[in-house]
Amino acid sequence: MEKFLQVAPHSVALVLLQLGREDEPDPPSSSSSPPKLQQRVTGYEVFANFKAVNMTHFWNKDLTLALTEIFFLGWIDEHVLLIQGQEVHLQVLRNGWTRRTLKAPQGYDIQFIGG
Question: Which residues form the domain of 92?
């Protein structure tokens, strides 16, 4: 029996994997070049990108409507996007994930959807 934790009512969590992320530090070099700074992305930026890349589903009117009706709820540990909306719209997102029509935000891959 699977257990899950409901973080907020009428919400889903998209667990994301950042693509091309380099967690290893750069090897020391003989030149004294300044270290590269990683640009941090806010959760709202990830959410906005998620909506933008999925709004191209003009043939799927249910998904397009759902995307206009969902809201950014939070960003946990830089890889979990919390989304809130009416249950009917959240179910459309879940169905899109099941049918592999839901696209991940740019630079990420959707690992799974919970909630």
Answer: 58-115
